[in-house]
Amino acid sequence: MGAPIGSGAMRAVAVVIALAGALALSGCGGGGGGERSALSLKLAALCEQARSDFEELGPPEREGFDVIPKLVKIGLRLASTIATLEGESDVDREQIRTLASTYESYWKEIDLGYGFYELGNAKGLKAAVEQATPELEAAEALATQMGAPECAERPFGDLRSLSR
């Protein structure tokens, strides 16, 4: 287990986890009638598995910063797996590329922030999380548009408020 976390650091980790959760929940969920596409069902399955993987790690407030590389690994795996999905139309294929790229960018930014933390700069991690958050929110919105509103759910709740 990692070192104990101070309140500011805990908030940064909480943000990371909240964002991680959102990625993990990138599963396609039912909502509002109608049949779901095969693509949305596949996306749902991927994201539900990622959410389960995130949840197995435990909340960052308990686990400490050492959990971040594990979160990044799960998030990058989700992004690369999404990239392998096949769409039936050009629009589907473009959405898949965009979604995978956005998730990948988000997780790489979190990884960079963790690198700052390892160098003794916890503020660098917090800044990376804050800068990356719009990417995660964009991915959540796109996944929801693709029929996967579960992508906007987070395994540990919305912890972004802890970083303020």
Description:
There is one protein chain. The protein is built from six helices and no strands. By secondary structure, it is mainly α. It has one domain (10-29, 36-154). Helix 1 (7-24) packs antiparallel against helix 2 (38-57) and helix 1 (7-24) runs parallel beside helix 6. The radius of gyration is 15 Å and the shape is elongated. Mean pLDDT is 79; it is low at 1-32 and 158-164.
Helix and strand arrangement:
Layout: H1 7-24, H2 38-57, H3 60-63, H4 68-83, H5 90-118, H6 122-145
Helix pairs in contact: 1-2, 1-4, 1-6, 2-4, 4-5, 5-6
Helical amount among residues, as a percent range? 55-70%
Largest sheet: none
Query: Which residues sit in consecutive blocks of at least 5 with pLDDT less than 50?
Result: 1-32, 158-164
Order of helices and strands: HHHHHH
- Number of structural domains: 1
Number of helices: 6
Whole-number mean pLDDT: 79
Oligomer: single chain
Radius of gyration: 15 Å
Beta-strand segment tally: 0
Rounded to the nearest angstrom, the distance between the terminal CA atoms is: 25 Å
Tell the overall outline.
elongated
Given the helix and strand composition, which structural class is it? mainly alpha
Fraction in beta strands: under 5%
Summary keywords:
6 helices; single chain; disordered C terminus; 164 residues; mainly alpha; disordered N terminus
